[in-house]
Every structure is written in C-alpha cells, then in structure tokens.
C-alpha cells in the first residue's frame, strides 16, 4: 500500500484529481482507498464507490 | 494539525493497511494542513505496519492564485514547500502566459511544478507516471 497525499485549498481540485486518478487506476486493475476530511466526503458518492470498488473513510477536522 | 486529528489519520491509515491493503491510499486533508505536517503524520504508522509514503501532491488553484498569493501566502507556501509535485489547476481558465508566470513564481520554492486542467486531462498523465514510478 502506498499513501498519497493530495493537498490544496478549498476548490483547488483535490477531489477531482483523486477521482480521475482512481478511475484510471481501476481501469488498470489497481485498487484504491481514500481518507477524506469532512468537507470532501460528498465528492465520493455511493455510485462512484461501487463502480470502482473503493473504500472511503472520513476524518473529522482534517 | 492537532494531536487528535493526527491520531485519527494514523489510525485510519493502519486500518486500511491491515483490513483492505489497497494499492494506493489517497489522503485528502482539509485546506489548512501543511505538507510537512502530512509527511510527519503519514509516516507515524510505520512504527506499527509497513507501507510506502508519498508522493505528496499539492494543488494550487490557478485562477485564484493572485488573491491567494496576496492574502494566504503562508498557507500556500506551507503546502508548496516540501511537496514532491505541485500542479497549477484549472489552468485552462487562464491564458498560457499567466500560467507560466504562476509556475515561475512557484518554482522559486519547489522544483516540480506543472499545469493541470480537467479539459483534455492536462497534467493527469504526469501524476499517473509519478504514481507508478514510485510503486
């Protein structure tokens, strides 16, 4: 497992980038997980999670 | 980053490693977290379980850069400095000259800066290359 950090201010495109990378990874058989702060969880809806077989965990305040 | 938050993050990382062990675990912190804090905290779990750390990617909002650089420079710098790669995002909303100006400003603080936009996936393959290069 490799931990990859994606930082940036609100609206900088963190969720957009992670979702695009996950999509490409899953097309190549890669498996991914996401730990997201409380502002970002909505960026990973259930259909995206199921389509790509990912796991998403939320941390408060982080 | 506070102690309880750091502890929660380390705990989640270890849980992922033990229960799921994905190829890549992406951490999306809140906007106030600095890169050196992420480096420190994401490495803490290595005392208990084995995993790889990095790359550390920082995204800088291109169209908002002028205001951010004026008003939030310590935060932007704290995220840019120490990052393995920095991407200027939403670059398709700026003209090429302006994007290059931003990149030049940021290159004073970190080496690997490039532009990114959703349109045409500019920069996306560079991120993919770096991920696979490190894995």
> SS-based structural class of chain A?
alpha+beta
Largest sheet of chain B: 3 strands, parallel
Structural class of chain B: alpha/beta
User: Number of helical segments of chain A?
Assistant: 2
Write the layout of secondary structure elements.
The complex is a heterodimer of chains A (62) and B (135).
Chain A lengths: L1 E7 L5 H14 L4 E6 L8 H7 L2 E5 L3
Parallel strand pairs in A: 2-3
Chain B lengths: L2 H17 L4 E5 L6 H10 L7 E10 L3 H7 L1 H8 L4 E5 L6 H12 L5 E3 L8 H11 L1
Parallel strand pairs in B: 2-3, 3-4
Helix pairs in contact in B: 1-2
Describe the structure.
- The complex is a heterodimer of chains A (62) and B (135).
- By secondary structure, chain A is of the alpha+beta class.
- Helices cover 34% and strands 29% of the residues of chain A.
- Chain A has 2 helices and 3 strands, in the order E-H-E-H-E.
- Chain A starts with a strand and ends with a strand.
- The mean pLDDT of chain A is 89.
- Chain B has 2 domains: 1-53, no CATH class; 55-135.
- Chain B contains 6 helices and 4 strands.
- Chain B has helices at 3-19, 35-44, 65-71, 73-80, 96-107, 124-134, and strands at residues 24-28, 52-61, 85-89, 113-115.
- Chain B has a 3-stranded parallel beta sheet.
- In chain B, helix 1 crosses helix 2.
- Chains A and B meet through strand 1, helix 1, strand 2 and strand 3 of A and helix 1, strand 1, helix 2, strand 2 and helix 4 of B.
Q: Which features characterize this protein?
A:
heterodimer, A: alpha+beta, 34% helix, B: 135 residues, alpha/beta, 2 domains, three-stranded parallel β-sheet, 6 helices, 4 strands, globular
Offer a concise description of the structure.
Chain A has 62 residues and is of the alpha+beta class.
């Amino acid at each position: 497992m490799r931990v990859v950090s994606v930082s940036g201010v609100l609206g900088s495109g963190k969720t957009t980038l992670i979702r695009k990378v996950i999509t490409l990874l899953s097309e190549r058989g890669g498996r991914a997980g996401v730990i997201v702060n409380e502002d970002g969880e909505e960026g990973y809806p259930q259909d995206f999670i199921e389509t790509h077989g990912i796991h998403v965990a939320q941390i408060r305040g982080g | 980053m506070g102690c309880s938050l750091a502890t929660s993050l380390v705990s989640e990382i270890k849980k992922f490693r033990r229960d799921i062990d994905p190829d890549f675990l992406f951490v999306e912190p809140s906007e106030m977290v600095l890169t050196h804090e992420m480096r420190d905290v994401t490495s803490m779990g290595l005392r208990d379980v084995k995993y790889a750390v990095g790359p550390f990617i920082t995204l800088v909002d291109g169209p908002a850069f002028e205001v951010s650089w004026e008003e939030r420079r310590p935060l932007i710098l704290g995220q840019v400095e120490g990052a393995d790669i920095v991407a200027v995002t939403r670059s398709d909303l700026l003209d090429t000259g302006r994007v290059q100006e931003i990149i030049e400003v940021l290159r004073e603080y970190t080496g690997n800066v490039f532009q990114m936009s959703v349109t045409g996936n500019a920069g996306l393959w560079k991120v993919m290359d770096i991920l696979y290069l490190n894995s």
